[in-house]
Amino acid sequence: MFTLPEQFSGITRAGLESQLAVFAALAGKTFDSVEKVADLNLNVAKASLEDGATVARQLLEARDAQEAINLATAQAQPAAAKALAYGRQVAGIASGMQAEFARAAEEQLLEASRKMSELVDDVSKNAPAGSENVIAIFKTALGNANAGYEQFRKSSRQAAEAMEANMNSVVGQFAQASEKAAGRARK
Length: 187
Hints:
By secondary structure, this protein is mainly α. It is built from four helices and no strands.
């Protein structure tokens, strides 16, 4: 039979080890996401330089000012489409990273809650007579903490879904506006 300090010590040690493992995993995911964004930025910069050189050559070869204006105007739609694609890719990377962080936090909190419940059950089995009220209060507090966490988790998911919906709405509106602008420029 373990004593209470030994039980707390074991749970504390296991909790710290678990937190370190989660931290290491999240740090790795963060570096992966940073690497993806850096690769994306390098590819976009390279493509932009190539596109810029092509457009510059076309503008230099233009026979008159109207042709140069038409060439420049024709670049608005592809540039807007590329900006939208870039924004979507960055949002996708950020969303994936946020999901990983949320999943890891949820797993960590569930495991901590499970271990705490096990400790309370063990302590209540070995508690001296007359301590039932204290254990009942502790179990109630633990139940309330779990309920609060569940509400926080639901609210966080709703906020993330709302943010993603807003981002999709903004991207859609930008795409519509750029299509309308390109249509007006062709006329």
